[in-house]
Amino acid sequence: MKKRLFTPGPTPVPENVMLRMAAPIIHHRNPEFVEILSRVHADLKYLFQTEQPVVVLSSSGTGGMEATVTSLFSPGDKLITVNGGKFGERWGQLAKTFTGNCVELTVEWGTAVQPEQILEALKNNPDTKGVLITHSETSTGTATDIKAIAQIVRENSDALICVDGITAVGAHEVRFDEWGLDACVTGSQKGLMMPPGLAMIALSERAAKAIEASKTPNYYFSLKKALKSHAKDDTPYTPAVSLVIGLDESLQMIKAEGIENVWKRHERLANACREGCAALGMKLFSNSPSFAVTPVWLPEGVDWKTFNKALKSDNGITVAAGQDEYKGKIFRISHLGFYDELDMLLVIGALEFTLKQIGHPFEYGSGVSAVQKAFLS
Amino acid sequence: MKKRLFTPGPTPVPENVMLRMAAPIIHHRNPEFVEILSRVHADLKYLFQTEQPVVVLSSSGTGGMEATVTSLFSPGDKLITVNGGKFGERWGQLAKTFTGNCVELTVEWGTAVQPEQILEALKNNPDTKGVLITHSETSTGTATDIKAIAQIVRENSDALICVDGITAVGAHEVRFDEWGLDACVTGSQKGLMMPPGLAMIALSERAAKAIEASKTPNYYFSLKKALKSHAKDDTPYTPAVSLVIGLDESLQMIKAEGIENVWKRHERLANACREGCAALGMKLFSNSPSFAVTPVWLPEGVDWKTFNKALKSDNGITVAAGQDEYKGKIFRISHLGFYDELDMLLVIGALEFTLKQIGHPFEYGSGVSAVQKAFLS
């Protein structure tokens, strides 16, 4: 049976990227690799829409978040975080671990924090050194208006704006320089269509200054060292060579499509996915939907394990389960990275097969027809 | 021209490992991946000759060293390190960064620390919490007698024994349990014949207890979380999926050869490499040679840049340069990982071609004939 992945990381890796990584390994001090890393550094600037450095770390995205917290801030620095899902919660855990001073706003899962809430928190905490937010919260499929929040933070505070863009970069509009962000993290196994193992962080001049001043002990995740090496198209420690080479390949694909087209495609796919699910009688989970992943409530009376078994074993489709208290209640369909219109038709079609198999009543063909209409309208 | 890598990391990756990693990506929560990780966990125990857990982190080997320091020790803990090269120096830097209390022994580059020196340092510092040592110091091609040092530490102290086995594991005899080690780190791009991007750490029961008690702030590199996840054949954060799959393949190769045979092969290759170099009139750098990498002095009157250009551009061979004050004075030939007898013949042959090209006098054929004799004796 054909197996197809609709998970928000790992996401499918194009064959040309896989095969490029299967070429004989080269040494990271060889001119050939330096040329590749130099091109990757340049193309990452395009991806983040920035003229400022984007460093590459060999770790998962969480490592990139840790590097941001330990490199930009010092023990005692007050950080505002927003807990509206697993990954916003993670910013909070990192802040508590390394600066020990975290003001954590809580928003309901499936809801985005509003700029006014950030403004209020800043007014109540004028000594805030950083605002750590999640652009696309993967656990809830919810997108936050980073542009508006960045504007409000800039107008009212000197706090650094640090964005978890792990499932946003390459799916949602991200304009690092224009929006005035200070740090934005992503991971390789998301919009970049790569296996996991690399984290990328765009860093502003303000961030670079903060990095110079930071007193938090760090070593592997020192962005001070990363920036210094970046200037020479180098890395402080042995990079994940094969993954950097794959990244070079996937960045060429993004450049060829054009970043604005990549963003529009994700918006289109997300919209069609939502239409398809709704037509099958599935309630949407988020009131501010991400373009990377669509979480939907399981239809009333449908058991998650039975449903997922039929979807996976009989139809070869892997989707993501709900997390924490939404385990067994929602599931998440990813359209992040290497997906097109026909993939959305395919996954909604597979949902129809699955619902039919487990005997859940719905109008056969209504999902796929809604997907088609969404694309053609 | 055929390109051939004789560097101590990245080391050559076998084609079957590369191709295995080029298969369609799978999700890390899929039963298929859990099965692979479970087998990797079991086979890593064989590699380290231990019954205790070996955790896998997505980072370079340095990340594994940082995880060891921040997870086993607390701020203020006194650690003994040995600076006899770049990587022993790194243990010291990590100790200074995270516990702030480091007794650093210095030994000359190319010389191994002696058990008596460790004993003396322990006697002078009875409050030592950990001894951090380098098994095979890559920068100097020097091997340290870890078995003897571990014995002396155990007999005279409660200090934890932490070993940088990055270029030793899969090259030198390592018997984690029998020798009573507490932590041993390796990296994927070394004896494991893989691209860089994974660190592996074997951990003793004593280490696990220390991990429970540690007060150093950490997150991504928390071995407490890593051990907890390991027990369920899981990882705390998204693992570098494709690299773990490649590791499964390379561990099968090591098992098929047999770990004792792998060690013996490395000893044989290192010996032949030394004989070949000596026959060409090159002085050996280390007085306690590693089986992973052989550093040799450039012959008198030979310029490193001219030599390396001829070796690389005309003969397709990449070796490693000398580091720090030995830049331009020594070079290092690796035989770590996927190498056999004929590779040693080949690399010494290439050295002969190169010396001939740059007009350095030597007896043509003497190097390769010494290699043959070494293998046949």
From TrEMBL, chains A, B:
Pfam families per record: Aminotran_5 (PF00266)
Matching InterPro entries: Aminotrans_V_dom, PyrdxlP-dep_Trfase, PyrdxlP-dep_Trfase_major, PyrdxlP-dep_Trfase_small, SP_NH2Trfase/AEP_transaminase
Residues with N6-(pyridoxal phosphate)lysine modification: 190
Keyword S-adenosyl-L-methionine listed: no
Domain (Aminotransferase class V): residue spans on this chain: 25-323
The protein's enzyme class: transferase
EC assignment: 2.6.1.45
GO annotation terms (biological process): glycine biosynthetic process, by transamination of glyoxylate
Keywords: Aminotransferase, Pyridoxal phosphate, Transferase
Gene Ontology MF, one: L-serine-glyoxylate transaminase activity
Cofactor: pyridoxal 5'-phosphate
Residues where substrate binds: 332
Family listed: Belongs to the class-V pyridoxal-phosphate-dependent aminotransferase family.
Protein name in UniProt: Serine--glyoxylate transaminase
Organism: Chloroherpeton thalassium (strain ATCC 35110 / GB-78)
Classification lineage: Bacteria, Pseudomonadati, Chlorobiota, Chlorobiia, Chlorobiales
